[in-house]
Each structure stands twice: as C-alpha cells, then as structure tokens.
Write a structure and sequence with these properties.
One of its GO terms (biological process) is DNA repair. This is HAD family phosphatase. It holds the Pfam family HAD_2. GO terms for molecular function: phosphoglycolate phosphatase activity. This protein has 222 residues and is an alpha/beta fold. It is built from nine helices and six strands. It has two domains: 4-15 and 85-216, HAD superfamily/HAD-like (Rossmann fold); 17-83. It is globular, with a radius of gyration of 17 Å. The model has no long low-confidence stretch (mean pLDDT 86). Helix 5 (91-100) packs parallel to helix 9 (208-216). Strands 3-2-1-4-5-6 form a six-stranded parallel sheet, sandwiched between helices.
Length: 222
C-alpha cells in the first residue's frame, strides 16, 4: 500500500522552469560568460534544468571556483524573481486531495532548502507539505537517488510504499532505482526522457488527476 508521495518542485508543481532559464542567462551575462538566445548553450541549460545549480554551473564553466560564483549569482537572481512564480492549475486542490487520501507529501528539489521553503510559502502549498529536502542537504544530488530516499525517510515511508512525481529523467531515474512508483508529469512542455516511468501522465490538466490515477491503480484507499 502506498503511504507517501514525493514531488519534484520546479516544472512539476510550480511553473518556474522559464524563470530558472532567464536567471541563468542573466547570471552568465552579468559575469561575462558568452551566451546567446537559441544557441547550443541555451539548449544545454534547458536540458540540465532539474539538476542542482552548482552542477549546471560547473558544466557551463568547467571550473569549480567559477561554477560556485555563477551558481551563487544565479540563485540570487532567481530569488529576486520569486514573486512571479505560480503553481500550475489545480495544484493546490490536487495536494489537498492527496492529503485527504491519507498520503504523506514530501518535496525533493535540486534547489536549496531555503529556496524550496520560500517558493512553497509564496505559492500557498507550504502547509500541505510534510517534509522537503534540498540539494544542500545531501551529499549526492540528482540524478542520484539520495535526495528522494531522504525525503521518504522524513515522511516515514519505504521506497516500495512511495510514489515519485517529476517532469524530467532526473526524477524518474532515481525513483526507478529505489523501486518506487514513478509518474512522469507534463504541463506545457513535454520532453521525451530516456528512462521509462511506471506511469505516463502527459495529458494531465492538473495535479487533481494524480489522485484519480492512484485510485485507478488501486494503490490507495478512497
């Protein structure tokens, strides 16, 4: 029986991927790192969204010191744009429904713990989340499974009792490694992933549909 659900945050619950991308572009320009719209660097960053800022910055710069500076600048820029972040349609009602079903809810995000908290409070879903884990709280970040395992521990469930919901391979692959049910969710952007989730949710209009899927799969009691 499933007892808990672990969500990714950006691109899964909140519509923030483009804000991350804009923040990366502004940070690179501020530090004199050559980056142009529609070039390969932009495409690279799009593909890497879902990883921790430090890891993306290192791939961009190839230098640990420069990567730390770039990640810090990007993080500050992103936090300055936090008021423009919104949940996807139906997320608040969806989270409420999952709680009604008796599920514990956790967040596992590649952003820092402080950033997760700020976004959750701004988007009015903070009170429904039982635990959250940021990239600064684990040794091995996504795509390793450590962050998801820690989130499951914090809500008191084993991987076999958990569902992981995310929008990229960086969420699905760790869930599969742990043996949890994985659901690939897509909103406006539908990226193909090279790992197979337990369940595809490409056409879900809002997170309320997740509750219906769980009932259909007979993994929770109504």
């Amino acid at each position: 029986m499933v007892k808990g659900i672990v969500f990714d945050l950006d691109g899964t619950l909140v519509d923030s991927v483009n804000i991350h991308l804009i923040s990366w572009i502004e940070a690179c320009r501020m530090l004199g790192i050559s980056i142009k719209i529609n070039n390969s660097m932009i495409d690279l960053i799009k593909d890497l969204v879902g990883l921790a800022a430090e890891d993306i910055a290192y791939i961009i710069t190839g230098d640990e010191v420069k990567a730390k500076i770039l990640a810090d600048v990007k993080r500050r820029i992103y936090l300055g744009k936090i008021n423009s972040i919104e949940t996807f349609p139906g997320v608040v009602d969806g989270v409420k429904e999952l709680k009604r079903l008796g599920l514990k809810i956790a967040i596992a995000s590649s952003t820092s713990r402080a950033t997760i908290e700020a976004v959750l409070k701004k988007t009015n879903i903070y009170s429904f989340v039982d635990a959250y884990v940021g990239s600064d709280e684990v040794v091995k970040r996504k795509p390793e499974p450590d962050m998801f395992l820690e989130a499951m521990k914090r809500i008191g469930v084993e991987p076999r009792e958990a569902i992981v919901v995310g929008d990229t391979k960086y969420d699905i692959a760790p869930a599969n490694i742990l043996g949890a049910i994985s659901i690939l969710i897509c909103w406006r952007r539908c990226n193909e992933v090279d790992v197979k989730p337990t369940f595809y949710a490409y056409n879900m209009d809002d997170v309320v549909e997740i509750a219906k899927i769980l009932l259909k799969m007979k993994v929770v009691k109504s």
